[in-house]
């Protein structure tokens, strides 16, 4: 089956990035949000990103127009019914994802392939809400989606091998390097990344070093593009907390358990860069101030 039309559910940080790379790769793309306001906000964000590429000279104004011409917004799930692939990027909560896919299963034709961008939930459990688990994969992108070159393509024990290979090829057509992963908690990246991020918080709690010194250590000592606390604030402390709970639930291992400090910061509403405060205070966005413990 030749994939021509792609649906994306959710036009937040991840969904808008996925919609952008899909339209840039030449696919007709429909992105669905729950309100007209959110559709507009998502499409405006994409427009801004494309305009930046034009400014930098890596995209022509004409190509920008063509990409935007391939991109449509909708507030109804019916608007996705003739898509060949639908990628879901909504809130990281199992009931919401199951409910969405169950509804899409009733609306879409039998050939539509479903994919979830979940970073930590079990694909098998989401797919089980549909009558097409053989046409269901994980497609896990990374933030910021237009920049990060990886997509994890996740198969379950029920995924049809032919569909799986088609989705690996689809990941490559989106301009990403696809890696094959099994449906195990956190797949490849978060299985390794989450314990590292949580350990950084534990090191801070234990007074091993300050926020800035731990960040500088990993950035300058190991060549990571961001230190762990900058990355935690970037990913979102609420998101990291969610992921760690799901992974702890799956493995029952201490390395996936959320440190008390992370829990308290989330409870206090310090969700990282998006809320203006996390391990850094972003009151002055050009000069984030590290938290002092
Ligand atoms: N959207 C689109 N483009 C963006 C962008 C965004 N949000 N942020 C940065 N860019 C682009 C810039 O325009 C710039 O492009 P050019 O090279 O063409 O000029 C390029 O990215 C580099 O940006 P900057 O020079 O401004 O800044 P930088 O060199 O520090 O790079 C970064 C920014 C790419 C985000 C880099 O810091 C980085 O790689 N950080 C680590 C990000 C990471 O680890 N992401 C994965 C998080 S884990 C996850 O997402 C999964 C999960 O399940 C939790």
What's the layout of helices and strands?
Layout: E1 5-9, H1 13-24, E2 28-32, H2 36-56, H3 61-69, E3 71-74, E4 85-88, H4 94-107, E5 113-116, H5 123-127, E6 136-141, E7 150-155, H6 161-173, E8 177-182, H7 189-205, H8 211-222, H9 228-235, H10 237-251, H11 260-267, E9 280-281, E10 289-290
Parallel strand pairs: 1-2, 1-4, 2-3, 4-5, 5-6, 7-8
Antiparallel strand pairs: 6-7, 9-10
The structure holds acetoacetyl-coenzyme A (CAA).
Describe the overall structure.
The protein has 293 residues and is of the alpha/beta class. The protein has helices spanning 13-24, 36-56, 61-69, 94-107, 123-127, 161-173, 189-205, 211-222, 228-235, 237-251, 260-267; strands at residues 5-9, 28-32, 71-74, 85-88, 113-116, 136-141, 150-155, 177-182, 280-281, 289-290. It folds into two domains: 5-182, Rossmann fold (3-Layer(aba) Sandwich), CATH 3.40.50.720; 195-290, N-(1-d-carboxylethyl)-l-norvaline Dehydrogenase, domain 2 (Orthogonal Bundle). The strands form two sheets. Strands 3-2-1-4-5-6-7-8 form an eight-stranded mixed sheet. A two-stranded antiparallel sheet has the order 9-10. The longest helix has 21 residues, at 36-56. The chain starts with a strand and ends with a strand. The mean pLDDT is 97. Acetoacetyl-coenzyme A binds at residues 49, 52, 56, 119, 142-144, 146-148, 190, 225-226, 231, 235.
Continuous helix count: 11
Ions, cofactors and other bound molecules:
acetoacetyl-coenzyme A
Using the coordinates shown, work out and report the CATH topology of the largest domain.
Rossmann fold
Distance between the termini: 56 Å
Highest-level CATH class of the largest domain: Alpha Beta
List the secondary-structure elements in sequence, H or E.
EHEHHEEHEHEEHEHHHHHEE
Helix content: 40-55%
The figure for the number of domains is 2
Number of strands: 10
| Mean pLDDT level | 97
Task: Show unreliable segments.
Answer: none
The CATH homologous superfamily of the largest domain is named NAD(P)-binding Rossmann-like Domain
Query: What is the CATH architecture descriptor of the largest domain?
Result: 3-Layer(aba) Sandwich
- Strands of the widest sheet, in order across it, are 3-2-1-4-5-6-7-8
Which class of secondary structure composition applies to the elements?
Answer: alpha/beta
Largest sheet: 8 strands, mixed
Give the C-alpha Rg. 19 Å
Q: What coarse outline follows from CA principal-axis ratios?
A: globular
């Amino acid at each position: 089956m030749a994939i021509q039309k792609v649906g994306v559910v959710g036009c937040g940080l991840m969904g808008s990035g996925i919609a952008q790379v899909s339209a840039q790769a030449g696919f007709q793309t429909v992105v669905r949000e729950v309100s007209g306001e959110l559709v507009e906000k998502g499409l405006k964000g994409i427009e801004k990103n494309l305009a930046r590429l034009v400014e930098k000279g890596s995209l022509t104004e004409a190509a920008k127009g063509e990409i935007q011409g391939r991109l449509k917004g909708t507030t109804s799930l019916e608007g996705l019914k003739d898509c060949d692939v639908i990628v879901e990027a909504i809130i990281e909560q199992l009931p919401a994802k199951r409910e969405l896919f169950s509804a899409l299963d009733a609306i879409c034709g039998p050939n539509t392939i479903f994919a979830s961008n979940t970073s930590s939930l079990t694909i098998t459990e989401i797919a089980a809400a549909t009558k097409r688990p053989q046409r269901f994969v994980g497609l896990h992108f990374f933030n910021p989606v237009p920049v990060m070159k990886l997509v994890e393509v996740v198969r379950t024990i029920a995924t049809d091998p032919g569909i799986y290979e088609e989705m690996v090829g689809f990941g490559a057509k989106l301009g990403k390097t696809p890696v094959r992963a099994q449906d195990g908690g956190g797949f490849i990246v978060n299985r390794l990344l989450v314990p590292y991020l949580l350990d950084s918080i534990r090191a801070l709690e234990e007074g091993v070093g300050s926020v800035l010194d731990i960040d500088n250590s990993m950035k300058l000592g190991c060549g990571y593009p961001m230190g762990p606390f900058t990355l935690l604030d970037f990913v979102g402390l609420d998101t990291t907390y969610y992921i760690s709970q799901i992974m702890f639930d799956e493995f029952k291992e201490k390395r996936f358990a959320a440190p008390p400090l992370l829990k308290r910061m989330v409870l206090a509403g310090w969700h990282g860069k998006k809320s203006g405060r996390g391990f850094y205070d972003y009151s002055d966005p050009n000069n984030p101030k590290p938290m002092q413990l």
